[in-house]
RNA sequence: GGCCCGUUCGUCUAAUGGUUAGGACAGUGGCUUUUCAAGCCAUUAACAGGGGUUCGAUUCCCCUACGGGCUACCA
């Protein structure tokens, strides 16, 4: 589609502030952002707060927070300076400069404002009236009751529900009289019934709609606020949006928008309807499916990099076998022509795997600072990440992080994986101390042996690899099966049937504590 | 009900008018190993159905089925 804007790419993410931002909305924002970055365009945040009943206080801040978490910087429109995206993060996307206060001043940046639709009421009124003057819209005074009745009748007759044009029959004098009398009214589109409206969607291709089936949509509500249809078209035009990137559910109302552009005599932007994310039951992802607020995933211990990567692959892929992508690689590869038409299902298992991959890819130092940052951020409500290591020194933490890293899938896995290291008294069933093929007494002997081996180790040699060598050498020289000696010792020091590596654990515990725990085990037998 | 969109392994998906229909997650089996995890190797598993078009269709067209979305003075 030819662009009227000298090919300058301008896209907007235009959520309505009705609560915490949904995974699906954010994925749409991500596509738009990626598209903007790929084409060196502008990513705009516009707030569509035209439904006064549904607006939820604090939503805009939450939206900003979600965008910030994923590193989707806003170039123009609504921003908050309480949240700062740092390009110098230790780990590419992690918000190191996060500030907890949510009462920061929202600011608007850009020359096309205001970017809150509630601040543009006079603009919409002007354009709605312009359409009336041009004969493409009309005043409607029908009451809710009357509309309800029309709908019921149509339903009974199995007709498509549509406004029946009741107020279309009013002549100019009558309209003026009603208007002057302060009668409640809306402005509706007047849609010609002939022909069809053709959309050439960037993703869906050509889609045809019969004009006779299009409803006379309300443009301006009786409270003076515009409906989405008017507001979006007017703003997208005024803000010189080049590509309208939005979810599939908007496809059916697109002909109304196309008609509006024609009525105004405006050039049309390109439209790209992206597939909707479905839950495991194949219906639109919603609260029934558990976590749908994008920020819930932060609380659940997912990394923004992983979330970003995963979301990018829901309905899009680069047509190669590569699946792990950095932000820059995604920017380089992403384009609308590779977006799928079918609706993908959100698969938490693949997200988990991907998150684990990102965790493993980090250096232990990076992971440590990420864990520390996240623990600090979620302090209070979710200070569970560090668990028993909440007040540990950085030095002590380093080895623990390394030990947990391989088996962590999410950040919140850290505490349960490492708790046993800090417990004063381990609580476990003595039976699990005994490896297969050994009797209780034999097991006891093995633990005794371990104490002997340990007693000969100098304090300065108390270190993972030296411990490993000492024990393995002992086994070899004395013809002891590794499992028969090492299993009981490992259970003794961890209290767990399944645990991290014995020598890493003993290293962290220290000689004294290790001996204590082995003695404790012996006494249990 | 009407309108619109969609349909390749369970899931995310690739490819092609002629292929053993490829990869990843999950599953299963094995290796490794002090256990678990990780890692490595192997493996199960898909073109919704029916008509065309064609020498040949998973691929192009039509129909059906199924799934989804929309059908508000909500977005």
From TrEMBL:
Principal place of residence: cytoplasm
GO CC field: cytoplasm
Binding-site residues for ATP, renumbered to this chain: 287
One of the GO biological process terms: glutamyl-tRNA aminoacylation
Catalytic activity: tRNA(Glu) + L-glutamate + ATP = L-glutamyl-tRNA(Glu) + AMP + diphosphate
Subcellular location as annotated: Cytoplasm
GO MF terms, alphabetically ordered: ATP binding; glutamate-tRNA ligase activity; tRNA binding; zinc ion binding
Motif ('KMSKS' region): 284-288
Domain called Aminoacyl-tRNA synthetase class I anticodon-binding: residue spans: 392-522
Class of enzymatic activity (EC top level): ligase
Glutamyl/glutaminyl-tRNA synthetase class Ib catalytic domain: residues covered: 8-353
PROSITE patterns: AA_TRNA_LIGASE_I
EC number(s) per entry: 6.1.1.17
Subunit structure and binding partners: Monomer.
Role: Catalyzes the attachment of glutamate to tRNA(Glu) in a two-step reaction: glutamate is first activated by ATP to form Glu-AMP and then transferred to the acceptor end of tRNA(Glu).
The family this protein is said to belong to: Belongs to the class-I aminoacyl-tRNA synthetase family. Glutamate--tRNA ligase type 1 subfamily.
This protein's name: Glutamate--tRNA ligase
Gene: gltX
């Amino acid at each position: 589609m030819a662009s009227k804007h000298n090919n300058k790419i301008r896209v907007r993410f235009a959520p309505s502030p009705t609560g915490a931002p949904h995974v699906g909305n954010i994925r749409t924002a991500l596509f738009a952002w990626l598209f903007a970055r790929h084409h060196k365009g502008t990513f705009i945040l516009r707030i569509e707060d035209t439904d006064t009943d549904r607006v939820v206080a604090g939503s805009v801040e939450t939206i900003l927070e979600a965008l910030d978490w994923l590193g989707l910087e806003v170039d123009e429109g609504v921003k908050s300076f309480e949240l700062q995206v740092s390009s110098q993060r230790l780990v590419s996307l992690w918000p190191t400069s996060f500030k907890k206060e949510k009462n920061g001043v929202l600011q608007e940046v850009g020359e096309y404002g205001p970017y809150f639709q509630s601040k543009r009421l006079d603009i919409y009124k002007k354009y709605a009236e312009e359409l009336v003057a041009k004969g493409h819209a009309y005043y409607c005074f029908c009451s809710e009751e009357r509309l309800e009745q029309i709908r019921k009748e149509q339903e009974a007759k199995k007709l498509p529900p549509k406004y029946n044009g009741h107020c279309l029959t009013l002549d100019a004098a009558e309209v003026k009289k009603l208007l002057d009398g302060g009668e409640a009214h809306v402005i509706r589109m007047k849609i010609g019934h002939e022909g069809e409206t053709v959309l050439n969607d960037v993703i869906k291709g050509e889609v045809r709609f019969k004009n006779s089936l299009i409803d006379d949509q309300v443009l301006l509500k009786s409270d003076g606020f515009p409906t989405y249809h008017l507001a979006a078209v007017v703003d997208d035009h005024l803000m010189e949006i080049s590509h309208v990137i939005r979810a599939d559910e908007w496809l059916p109302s697109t002909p109304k928008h196309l008609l509006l552009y024609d009525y105004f005599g405006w050039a049309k932007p390109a439209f790209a309807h992206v597939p909707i994310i479905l839950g495991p039951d194949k219906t639109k992802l919603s609260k029934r499916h558990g976590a749908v607020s994008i920020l819930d995933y932060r609380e659940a211990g997912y990394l923004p990099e992983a979330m970003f990567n995963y979301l990018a692959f829901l309905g899009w892929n680069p047509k190669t076998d590569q699946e792990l992508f950095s932000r820059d690689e995604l920017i380089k590869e992403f384009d609308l022509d590779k977006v799928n038409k079918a609706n993908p299902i959100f698969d938490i298992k693949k997200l988990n795997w991907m998150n684990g991959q990102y965790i493993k890819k980090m250096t232990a130092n990076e992971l440590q600072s990420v864990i520390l940052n996240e623990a600090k951020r979620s302090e209070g409500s979710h200070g569970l990440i560090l668990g028993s290591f909440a007040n540990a020194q950085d030095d002590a933490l380093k080895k623990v992080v390394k030990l947990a890293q391989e088996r962590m899938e999410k950040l919140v896995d850290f505490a349960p994986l490492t708790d046993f290291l800090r417990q004063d008294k381990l609580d476990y069933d003595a039976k699990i101390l005994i490896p297969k093929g050994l009797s209780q007494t034999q097991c006891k002997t093995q633990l005794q042996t371990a104490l002997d081996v340990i007693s000969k180790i100098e304090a300065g040699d108390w270190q993972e690899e030296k411990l490993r060598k000492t024990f393995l050498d002992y086994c070899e020289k004395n013809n002891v099966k590794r499992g028969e000696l090492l299993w009981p010792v490992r259970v003794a020091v961890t209290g767990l049937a399944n645990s991290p590596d014995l020598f890493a654990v003993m290293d962290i515990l220290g000689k004294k504590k290790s001996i204590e725990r082995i003695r404790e085990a012996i006494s249990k037998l």
